[in-house]
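Support request, please re-run this one:
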Amino acid sequence: MASRDTPVLIVEDDPFTRLFQVILDPAVAPARVAAFSEFFSHDLPDFAGWCSDLRKKLGALCPGTVRLAANPDEFAAGIPGAAIAVVESFPIGERELAAADRLRAVQKFGTITTGIDLEACKQRGIPVLTLRRRANIACAEHALGMMLALSRKICETDGLISVEQLRAAGYEPRIFDRRHTSGSNWARVTGLRTLYGKQLGIVGLGEIGRELALRAAACGMRIAYTQRRRAENAVEERYAARYCPLDELLAESDVVSLHLPGGPATRGIIDRGALGRIKPGALLINISRPELIEREALLDALSAGRLGGFALDTPYEAPGRADDPLSCFRNVIVTPHIAAQPRFNALADFEEMLLNLSRILAAPLGICRT
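Re-run finished. Output below.
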C-alpha cells in the first residue's frame, strides 16, 4: 500500500509503459528490471545508470507506486487515489474522472486524445499531456525508406556496378553514345519510379500513419486514407488526406502502407480479394503486424507480378527463417522488426514524460505548469 506522500500512477499496461514501473516503483519485480536491462543493452549497456540519473531529476514523483491496468475496467478501478493517469488507448471520461479523487494530470502515450474527455478534464483543472513519440517518427521514417528503396530499386541494384554483375542479375547494360546523350542509367535498369505525384494510400491514419503522411507530402505525394471511423475535418486538412473506402484506396493508390494494430478485427484485412483489387504494380508496405496480410495470398500476388514491390518490417516468424519464401523475390524487402529503433527513442520519450509529470506534481494545487 502506498503511503499518503508517495504518488500513485495508474498506467495502461503495455510492453513499453511498464517502464514507468521499472523507473519509479521500488516494488517492481527484479525479473522485470533484468528483462528491461537486457532489452536496452545493445543500445544502452548501463540501463541501471540511466535510471539512477533520471530518478535524481524527478523530485516527488520518485519513488512512486505504479498500478498497471490490463483493461479499461481495471483502469477505472485503480484510478482512486492516483495522482497520475497514463493511457494509450483506454478512455478517460465521466466514469474515470468521477472516481479520480486525487488526480493531478493525465498523460496520453501519444498525441491523439480522442478517448479523453478534454473538456471534463479542463473543468476539473486536470492538465492532459501528450507525447509525440519518437518511436512513431522512426516507424514513419522506416516506411518512407522502404517506399524509396522499392521505387528506386536500391536494394535490387546495390553493388551491381560492373557489366558482369549486371548481366548476371538479368540486366542488359550498354554504354550510350556520349557524343549525343548523357550516360545516365547505362545499366538500363527498368521499372524505376518516383514518389512525386503518386498517391499514397494509408490504411489507418493513427499516430504513425499521420507521421508518414507528413513525410510523404514532403515528397510531393497525394495522400488518401481509410480507417474504421473517418477522421475529423481538421485532421484531414492538417495532413492533406482524403478519405475513401478500402476498396477504392487499393484500386487507386500507387503505394499502400498499413498502420493498424494486430488482433482479430484486423487479421487478414489484406486478403486474396483485397490483393486482387489492388492497383497493378502498386507497392505494398507493412511495418505493423505481418498477420494483417494473408501470407499465401501475398506470395501468389508476388509470383503473379500483381505487386510492384513489397516491404515488411516484422517477419511472419520471429526470428525469421533463412528459407522464407519472401526472400526469393528481388522486389521484396524484409527487415527484422527494427522500424521503431534505436532504443534511445523510447528512453527519450519516457524521460520527457516523467520530467513533465514531475513538474506537475511540484506545482501547487490548481496551477498547471507543463
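The chain has a mean pLDDT of 95. The first strand starts at residue 8 and ends at 12.
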